[in-house]
Amino acid sequence: MASTMRFSPNSTRTEAFPRCNSISGFIGVASRSSSKSKFMFIGRIVNPNLRRSSFSVKCVSSSESKQKLQDPVPQQQATTSLSSLMPDASSIASSIRYHAEFTPLFSPENFELPQAFFATAQSVRDALIINWNATYDYYEKLNVKQAYYLSMEFLQGRALLNAIGNLELTGPYAEALSKFGYKLENVVHQEPDAALGNGGLGRLASCFLDSLATLNYPAWGYGLRYKYGLFKQRITRDGQEEVAEDWLEMGNPWEIIRNDVSYPVKFYGKVVSGSDGKKHWVGGEDIKAVAHDVPIPGYKTKTTINLRLWSTKAASEEFDLYAFNSGRHTEACEALANAEKICYVLYPGDESTEGKILRLKQQYTLCSASLQDIIARFERRSGASVNWEEFPEKVAVQMNDTHPTLCIPELMRLLMDVRGLSWKDAWSISQRTVAYTNHTVLPEALEKWSLDLMQKLLPRHVEIIEMIDEELIRTLIAEYGTADSDLLEKKLNEMRILENVELPAEFADIMVKSKEAIDIPSAELQNSEQEVEDDDDDGKVEEAIAKRDGTDKSSIEDKKVELPEPIPEPPKLVRMANLCVVGGHAVNGVAEIHSEIVKDEVFNAFYKLWPEKFQNKTNGVTPRRWIRFCNPDLSKLITEWIGAEDWVLNTEKLAELRKFADNEDLQMQWREAKRSNKMKVVEFLREKTGYSVSPDAMFDIQVKRIHEYKRQLLNILGIVYRYKQMKEMSAAERKANFVPRVCIFGGKAFATYVQAKRIVKFITDVGATVNHDPEIGDLLKVVFVPDYNVSVAEMLIPASELSQHISTAGMEASGTSNMKFAMNGCLLIGTLDGANVEIREEVGVDNFFLFGAKAHEIAGLRKERAEGKFVSDPRFEEVKEFVRSGVFGPYNYDELMGSLEGNEGFGRADYFLVGKDFPSYIECQEKVDEAYRDQRKWTRMSILNTAGSHKFSSDRTIHEYAKDIWNIQPVKLP
User: Fold this and answer.
1) Which of 112, 572, 577, 822 has the greatest number of CB atoms lying within 10 Å of its CB?
2) Is 613 in the active site?
């Protein structure tokens, strides 16, 4: 019925939308329609070209007769009424009708599911805007200190279900949509995931925003509005293919474009000194960053904070009309295209110089536009008298990883060049304002930018970075003195922001530089060369060489002296992570083991100099999205057994489940909830991949970015070993020895990461072989889910029974998916890496499947490998040969298998220790099978995992940031 519903101006059916001849000048507001506090939308046609007329909107709560609409009530009265109401299904249905008719993104002929979603989302946005305005009006009045979270990624996922859940309107919205013949679940699935992130970095940022709003902390997120996201992943016979993401194709009902909020952003140009003594950055390329706001509601609170995303464009005068009319269309639009492409793609490929420039432009745009906005807000709230010393008392800026590092020189530039502060004052203010979260120990992820490229693109910022580097040099000289030149040189080489850059002139005489000897090993040869210079006789050189080598002149008569090729000068680089540590007042890791590695290895020299800067803030995930809303069956069960629903806000209450872990009734209900979720995934996999899997099999899942250190390769090789064993057994032996498994993978390999894409191809080839093997049947299935995103995670995680977090120890900063899986009663198999360490402590060592080398052993194991001392396990060699036999198709996997062999060399020598950990891994998997056979034991372990996840709420993490780094207080609306 719903799919054929049509609009008719004369219809009186509840499902129909009224039509009018014109909506020009329509004003619609909401007010009370009855003493029961229901909504009704009212409005009037005010088109002067038409006869003044009234029109009707049928309200579900009204009588069958149409009601004539009244004149709009005053805006203040309407707002007051709305903010005090908890709408029911009838008023929500009226709101949906209104938006379908008067704020449409679709033609009015049919009210199909996509239009139902947009109208529903717009009706929710109305409530969010009311709370958003109230929140920031209150913050403005109180002039509270506010935190600003800058991130290149915000991996939000779908917003509708989360928003109505936080507003406590899930039931009313479900009932309202049923009046149109739709299920809420089907409407929700029409929403595309916002393509604003890729992995854990962006998802963490979104969890933080949810917790900030829920806990009533004054905060804002800043990011970029990527038109095409990272990419949409397709899986074909050739493996992964990338196509542009189309999430904005039909528009975004959540965002509010603020055309009145835009800031200039400059690139290139030059720096000149003005008559006033200030530095001025002039010329170059100018663009505008325009604000798009996305309201973020808190759970069971009026607080609604903001995610401000920047899009980029050029001023209209940059369009060369003369060139266009002359037929030079591309040239005419060049400035516009250059501006707009900044926000086209997340992480544009940076193999080329153009790609590097584009990525640096992105990072600077985020920093510059956000800081200009923050400063403008500070000045507005300060009133007529602005005291810049108060800036750190009102503003906290958190840099999520190194991408926003340019915040530091940009804040300095804005304070000095635009606001006229001295270097000393600006530096003090900047250091007290900015803080840095480190997310990696991988060297390639600690960003370094070419100094020459940055000098070209951001000349003023390079000047400021050089001055910061000089400040650091002075600090190091004051700290370590000049007596031990080797120690000072070591500290400078390790800690300076500028790498491979000569010391500034004022410090040149401090370091004693040894002269580099000419690469001719004999003093006699040098003497001979002197003779050559004196006598101008090439023969002397030959004689000297002969004398040195014990040969005579005639034997080398035809030889010429071959001078060694000059050693290329190392590139001059800006070390962004070092700049973050120097320019901020706090540096935090994101798990206990990671923070220790940061202090002991990554930034050890800085830690010794400024130990007070370094902190740990173990990541967390929002329990609203990651259990309450995505797993309603389990959430209901938890509430019933704990006796209250406040665990959603106080996850410490989850620990109470421990006392019921052996209760047979709970265990039975727990398994029923898990099976219900598995049935949804069975249908999902059939729809997305074409594979049919059994809900009675164990669901074994690894979903995350495809990267060698995350070791999806170890997982799939373990599966290959399992398959090989099965093929060598009879049917009866297979059934007796193996628990049925559905092994599910998901994640994107970066478009230029060749080895990661080989791994994706390998997984899909193994699946294609195993899944069509009639001898194996449902005992083993391998499924790669294409285009993994938040919405897919919300489907898979509640259904998971075993989750793999098997990175090489010491290489995963934290991880957050491990927390989500544990929260949903999934058992983990993993190494002692990242947050695994803390999860294992909380859920109990008996409820975590541990294997593999420890973090402190990794360096020694790599050294042993380089020395040729590693002896591969025979089972590992069997698996590699099995792969090479061609059983998984004609693709040549020599490069992939070759990366696991040899003792040294780029792309070889098994840097991530897959071979070393393989025996431990497959033996641990045998323990998994054994535990799963005892479903009572397994269910008990599952319950204890949920109970032990109580410490991994992002609410706890945000409280720690607010107290220890930002120094902000909750501000609850009256």
Assistant:
1) 822
2) no
